[in-house]
Amino acid sequence: MSNLVFSGIQPSGQLHIGNYLGAIINWLELQEKYPCIFAIVDYHSISVPFNPQEKRQEIKELALDFLALGINPKKSQIIIQSHLPEHLELAWILGTITPLSWLERIPTFKSKKQQHQQYLNLGLLSYPVLMSADILLYKANLVPVGEDQLPHIELTNQIAKRFNQMFGKTFPEIKPILTVQSRIMGLNRPNDKMSKSLGKSNYLALTDLPKTIRQKIKSATTDSDNQIKLDWEKKPGISNLLSIYHLFTKKTIDQICQQYQNKGYAQFKSDLAEIIIEQLSPFQNKRQRLSNKPGYINKIISNGEKKAKKIAQATLREVKQKIGLL
Ligand code: AMP
Ligand code: TRP
Description:
Blueprint: E1 5-9, H1 17-30, E2 36-40, H2 42-45, H3 52-69, E3 76-80, H4 86-95, H5 100-104, H6 107-115, H7 122-136, E4 142-144, H8 150-167, E5 175-177, H9 210-218, H10 236-249, H11 253-259, H12 264-290, H13 294-322
Parallel strand pairs: 1-2, 2-3, 4-5
Helix pairs in contact: 3-12, 4-7, 4-13, 7-8, 9-12, 10-12
The protein binds adenosine monophosphate and tryptophan.
Adenosine monophosphate binds next to helix 1.
């Protein structure tokens, strides 16, 4: 069986360093080895409240982010989920073989149920079925994501297995691909993962200006003993910043601790801010250049979608044949 990589991100606000260090870094590595499809999953993003005008803009911005981060259209296909209705067709079919109990115990459903009590719609529950369809539609077997997505990958494998048992072998087994640090914590709440939904001072956006980066890192939550060392239990804030420093510089944690042995948090934070500013600057410059070329970006997407559609249609035909609809 040949390898194919699939991953997706919702267009719902700015990308942050958690998305980058926790998932996208692996996209860039994998595209050097395997064919890849990277999706802007707009249908997923409308399962929570949204503004249509902003949504249109967010989709464009995310396409810009993908390209500026280094997704190479010669190697990878970029698609917009809603342009390929096959995702929804397969999702419906998979939904009919997915027991409700499997969906009700998914952790993201439980937390979204709490968060969106006034907007508790069917989409929130069936969200992971659509995600399974995204992946299985292309028979992708490698899925680079952050740690929070693991329950969804497990569910995808359960659904695929059940389909194969009921209608004959169709789908491969999926392997999640995690980065070395697949859970980046929030700047002002280092016990929870960094997240857009926890407010602007919780995350560092990839498009944040130098001034904002300096200010956010400076005010990131730390303890008060001024000792730089890795101790996730007692020192989650400093441990998170240390691991971000390590991921951006490739210096080992030990090397960094030694370097700052007698220097204290202020110096460490100020150096870290400059490192991040420098590391993000090629992305930010490229993004600026690409933002003047909407025609070029649309062309890349429509080319990607043409190629993806061929695979999607073939899988859907096979599935419909197997279940007696063709
Ligand atoms: P989201 O922004 O929640 O749509 O996530 C897009 C991708 O980034 C998914 O693969 C997530 O697992 C990953 N991701 C989001 N937040 C984090 C985080 N704080 N640490 C690591 N990975 C993350
Ligand atoms: N659920 C993912 C997230 O919130 C986004 C997503 C949708 C996805 N479909 C996917 C990720 C398929 C990987 C593969 O981040």
